[in-house]
Design goal:
Layout (H helix, E strand, L loop, with lengths): L12 H15 L7 H5 L4 H27 L4 H32 L13 H5 L3 H8 L12 H19 L5 H22 L10 H16 L1 H9 L2 H17 L8 H19 L14 H6 L2 H18 L9 H28 L8
Helix pairs in contact: 1-3, 1-14, 3-7, 3-9, 3-12, 4-7, 4-14, 4-15, 6-7, 8-9, 8-12, 9-12, 11-12, 14-15
């Protein structure tokens, strides 16, 4: 076994992960009888986008650091670590999704036929997002409906790993600029074809924007120091504006919004990450805070929340208390958290321990 090269630990990111998940969680809840609440339920796609920016930052930082430290990137180890993090729970949830109709039949519980019947071959090879695009629909079992983003992440890992294997890291800004332009063109093409933005090309700018703070941290430490001189009031004002936009932009009906808004959110999300990096005046949420602790379980939260929500919807008639929207939300969130904690400590963590064998 070879030890993991020393890397910086990033505070606050776990908390940001949980907040991103919570936006997605709200999106999948049933409609409320309060109109103002329903406004908050329409921003799920933006929550996923922040996951992409975070991935762009962390993966770029890891790859640049490895190349600077060792002179090259061991793709076998890089992909192995990603596989150990993503695949075990992904395939466990995939098995659950395909067994769901049989389980519901055995329990004499009805299930919805809305959407298309999944194809295991498509799902196993991380192609669910392309089937959703081509059929202009969604899978009829949970949690396949949210797995499109996992497919995008897997495609991103392949592209980024191969790219940084050949790339001189100092050229990162130019390459990221190319991917921003590529994403804009891809979204324009998909818009004209009536396709949803569910693939890696239409989301590549999010990863590219996330890569910029990573590049600055590795090569432009003087700029990180300058960011540290910006007052916290300004930084938190930008965070507030970002939150405001997250919940207002989905209400805009202009067709050009889906073309332009990724650029705005990509820049804002990258800025928020950048604000966590300086030693002085940094935005900081402790890893020991409840937000930070919950962020550890974000992957499980993301994959299990639609299962919990759909199950509770089926139980509403037999459990009248669940008909109260706020009670429903609390029960769904608590059950999702409990399931994710159990999943992490009894299942996911056993695979994560193996990552130590895949460092140079």
């Amino acid at each position: 076994m070879i030890e993991n090269p020393k890397r910086r630990h990033f505070h606050t990111l776990d908390a940001l992960r949980f907040l991103s998940f919570f936006v997605v969680f709200l999106h999948h809840l049933p409609k409320s009888y309060f109109k103002w609440v329903n406004v908050l339920l329409e921003s799920g796609g933006i929550g996923v986008s922040f996951f992409f920016v975070l991935s762009g930052f962390l993966i770029t930082y890891i790859l640049i650091q490895e190349k600077l430290t060792l002179g090259t990137i061991n793709l076998r180890n890089f992909f192995a670590r990603r596989i150990l993090r993503i695949w075990p729970l992904f395939f466990a949830m995939l098995a659950f999704a395909f067994l769901t109709p049989f389980i519901l039949n055995a329990l004499n519980i009805s299930f919805s036929n809305d959407g298309y019947a999944p194809n295991w071959l498509v799902s196993v090879f991380f192609l669910e997002n392309y089937r959703m695009i081509l059929l202009d629909s969604f899978p009829n079992v949970s949690p396949l409906v949210v797995m499109w983003s996992i497919c995008v992440e897997e495609h991103f890992y392949i592209i980024w790993g191969l790219l940084f294997l050949k790339l001189n890291p100092i050229q990162t800004p130019k390459i990221m600029g190319f991917f921003v332009v590529l994403a804009i063109i891809a979204r324009l093409v998909y818009f004209n074809l009536g396709w949803a933005n569910l693939d890696v090309f239409t989301n590549m700018d999010y990863f590219a924007f996330g890569a910029i703070p990573a590049y600055m941290l590795c090569f432009k430490k003087d700029m990180i120091l300058r960011v540290g001189k910006i007052s916290k009031k300004i930084k938190y004002s930008i965070v507030f504006i970002t939150l405001l936009l997250i919940f207002t932009v989905p209400q805009l009906l202009f067709s050009w919004v889906q073309i332009i808004s990724p650029l705005v959110f990509g820049l804002l999300f990258a800025s928020i990450i950048l604000f966590t990096l300086p030693e002085k005046n940094a935005i900081k949420i402790s890893d020991t805070s409840w937000l930070g602790r919950l962020g550890t379980y974000t992957y499980g939260l993301y994959l299990t929340h639609t299962i919990v929500i759909n199950l509770l919807l089926k139980l509403e008639d037999s459990v009248p208390l669940l008909a109260h929207w706020f009670v429903f939300v609390i029960v769904a969130l608590v059950l999702t958290i409990v399931l994710s904690i159990i999943s992490y400590h009894t299942f996911e963590k056993q695979f994560l321990k193996l990552k130590r064998y895949f460092y140079r």
